[in-house]
């Protein structure tokens, strides 16, 4: 005899006895007393446990899971985005689109009616993007650019796209492929690039496997490539071990690990076998194979030459990558004690990326196997503490300084660049700024800021951006050519900054600046007063008496921009600030005159300032 589930009544669960059939639900053990009209005995009931399914964006696909009746949607998703500045993917948490919200809600109604609880407001829903950003706008484009090169396409604009690949990631991908030898300088595919493409994996891994033949490391390289393409074979707490070489030992059969994912191991070995069958070529007898413990690091370096890293030797377990980015270990790890490592996987968030997987490599192995990436050059920097230039001979791999030795002599060009370094550290204030140079600088900055407000006046002027940040970032262009022969900071006072700045303005632009934003303006007394462009609106500080007889506020920009007038007492102290001189004469002057007449009895204070003669003298001198 079996029991059939009827439903839930107010006083509990209801069941009935039936001759055939099985319980609809299974899972819990439940004791139930048969009603009085049936033989009383204990019956075992089974029905399902409630389950919580934590879903990724896979839940937005057509995948159907039975038993889903309720969806709780956070409105967030983790998205992988490629950063061309670092050459790395990083996971970010971002808001989903309206399309994703609709798709997620549909999970609750696949097989029957259900409910969706959205953890945001309706107003937020209306402000969410309509659809997700196209993946091509967020992804690493190196595989795509290699395929396009195979077709003879070097410029993505030659093709018609639903979404045009962005220029930054496109340029970064082509630069990487050129570094790996897959593209030549004209961005055409090379024979090596064609062989990489045939392996059907990311160009980094394909390059590593092809180059491994020279060292006789095909087996290790194919296992490593397959490992990097598969999920981590270590499980549980072992995943905190960041050393990928230990995983390679398990794959190669040199170490046992009962807690490893044996299904993943088999898949990795099978894929590695497939790739080995595609590799051809002979070992280079002139190249010595790396030490066993260095082999994984050398192979990783072939795939990720931009992630060879040197320890900063601090307590935070930080490293500097050869691409200039910082990286760190989030906890103590054996790899954190190494001088050099190669990073295979990292989380690109935060000031320093967090190292997820890597392998050790010795300094000697870096010199031996990456000689083509190492450069030696003279370098000069400014030592602000010593107040002088310090020269050295640096051996570098990308942004990594492998070795540095003092240099005896400093070339004039490098000495000039050291002075630029000092100016960048101290700021533009370290330069000599006479009044004329500063006035020119401020006037050009003012006009540049007014371009949108007065396009008809300013659109024809070739006005540069002379903000402090722009000038500091372009010191090489406008200042470096004028530093020849200078070696000390106090020699900077020899610079004629006004002439230097004028040399970077076209003649028509110089004329336009003088006409639209003059350095001085002549007031009724005959004095030429300097306009201060350091404030917006620009300020004309002038003694009140010198403005007698002037009915309207002085202007610039062809009469369309009134100046801010700072009316001064005979002691050069402000008594009124206005952009409406006529209103001041009419409404405020009489009150101001009473006070000034008492304090400055020797000066002329007429009853009608609009008809009086302007003066910069006392009554006696008048």
Walk me through what this model shows.
This protein is α+β, with helices and mostly antiparallel strands and about 625 residues long. Among the domains are: about 45 residues, no CATH class; about 80 residues, P-loop containing nucleotide triphosphate hydrolases (Rossmann fold); about 90 residues, no CATH class; about 80 residues, no CATH class. It is built from 20 helices and 23 strands. The strands form 9 sheets. It has a 5-stranded mixed β-barrel. Strands 14-15-16 form a 3-stranded antiparallel β-sheet. It has a 3-stranded mixed β-sheet with strand order 19-22-23, with no helix packed on it. The radius of gyration is 38 Å and the shape is elongated. The N terminus is likely disordered.
- Main beta-sheet annotation: 5 strands, mixed, barrel
What structural class do the secondary elements suggest? alpha+beta
Strand content: 15-25%
Low-pLDDT ranges: 1-34, 36-47
Oligomerization status of the protein chains: single chain
Q: If strands are numbered along the chain, what order do they take across the biggest sheet?
A: 9-10-11-13-12
Mean pLDDT: 86
Helical residue percent band = 25-40%
* Number of DSSP strand runs: 23
> What is the molecular shape?
elongated
Work out the radius of gyration. Answer: 38 Å
Number of helices: 20
Distance between the termini: 127 Å
């Amino acid at each position: 005899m079996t029991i059939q589930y009827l439903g839930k009544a107010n006083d509990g669960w209801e069941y009935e006895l039936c001759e055939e059939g099985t319980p609809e639900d299974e899972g819990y053990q439940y004791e139930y007393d048969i009603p009085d009209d049936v033989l009383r005995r204990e019956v075992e009931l089974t029905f399902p446990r409630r389950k919580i399914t934590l879903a990724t964006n896979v839940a937005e696909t057509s995948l159907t899971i039975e038993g889903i009746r309720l969806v709780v949607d956070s409105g967030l998703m983790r998205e992988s985005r490629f950063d061309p500045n670092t050459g790395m993917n990083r996971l970010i948490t971002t808001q989903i689109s309206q399309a994703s919200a609709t798709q997620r809600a549909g999970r609750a109604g696949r097989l029957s009616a259900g409910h969706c609880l959205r953890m945001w407001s309706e107003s937020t829903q209306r402000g969410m993007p309509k659809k997700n950003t196209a993946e091509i706008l967020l992804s690493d484009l190196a595989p795509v650019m290699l395929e396009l090169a195979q077709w003879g396409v070097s410029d993505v604009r030659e093709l018609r796209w639903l979404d045009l690949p962005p220029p930054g990631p496109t340029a970064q991908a082509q630069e990487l492929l050129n570094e790996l030898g897959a593209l030549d300088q004209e961005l055409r595919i090379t024979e090596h690039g064609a062989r990489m493409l045939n392996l059907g994996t990311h160009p980094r891994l394909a390059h590593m496997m092809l180059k491994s033949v020279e060292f006789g490391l095909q087996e290790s390289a194919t296992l490593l490539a397959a490992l990097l393409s598969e999920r981590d074979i270590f499980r549980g707490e072992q995943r905190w071990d960041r050393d990928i070489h230990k995983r390679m030992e398990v794959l190669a059969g040199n170490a046992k690990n009962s807690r490893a994912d044996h299904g993943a191991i088999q898949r990795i070995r099978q894929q590695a076998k497939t790739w080995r069958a595609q590799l051809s070529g002979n070992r280079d007898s002139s190249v010595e194979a790396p030490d066993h413990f260095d082999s994984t690091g050398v192979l990783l370096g072939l795939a990720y030459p931009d992630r060879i890293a040197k320890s900063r030797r601090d307590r935070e377990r930080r490293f500097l990558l050869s691409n200039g980015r910082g990286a760190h270990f989030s906890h103590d790890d054996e790899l954190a004690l190494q001088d050099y490592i190669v990073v295979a996987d990292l989380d690109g968030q935060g000031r320093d990326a967090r190292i997820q997987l890597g392998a050790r490599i010795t300094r000697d192995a870096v010199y031996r196997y990456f000689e083509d990436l190492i450069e030696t050059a003279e370098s000069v920097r400014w030592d602000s503490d010593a107040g002088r230039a310090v020269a050295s001979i640096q051996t570098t791999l990308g942004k990594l300084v492998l070795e540095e030795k003092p240099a005896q002599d400093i070339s004039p060009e490098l000495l000039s660049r050291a002075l630029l370094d000092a100016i960048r550290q101290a700021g533009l204030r370290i330069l000599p700024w006479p009044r004329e140079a500063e006035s020119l600088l401020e006037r050009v900055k003012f006009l540049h800021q007014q371009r949108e407000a007065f396009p008809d006046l300013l659109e024809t002027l070739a006005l540069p951006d002379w903000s402090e940040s722009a000038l500091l970032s372009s010191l090489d262009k406008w200042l470096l050519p004028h530093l020849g022969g200078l070696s000390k900071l106090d020699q900077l006072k020899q610079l004629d900054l006004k002439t230097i700045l004028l040399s970077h303005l076209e003649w028509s632009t110089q004329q336009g600046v003088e006409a639209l934003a003059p350095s001085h303006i002549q007031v009724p007394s005959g004095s030429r007063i300097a306009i201060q462009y350091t404030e917006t609106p620009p300020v004309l500080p002038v003694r009140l008496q010198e403005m007698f007889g002037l009915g309207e506020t002085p202007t610039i920009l062809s009469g369309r921009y009134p100046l801010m007038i700072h009316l001064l007492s005979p002691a050069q102290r402000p008594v009124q600030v206005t952009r409406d001189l006529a209103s001041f004469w009419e409404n405020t002057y009489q009150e101001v005159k009473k006070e000034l007449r008492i304090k400055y009895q020797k000066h002329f204070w007429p009853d009608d300032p609009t008809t009086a003669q302007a003066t910069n003298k006392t009554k006696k001198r008048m």
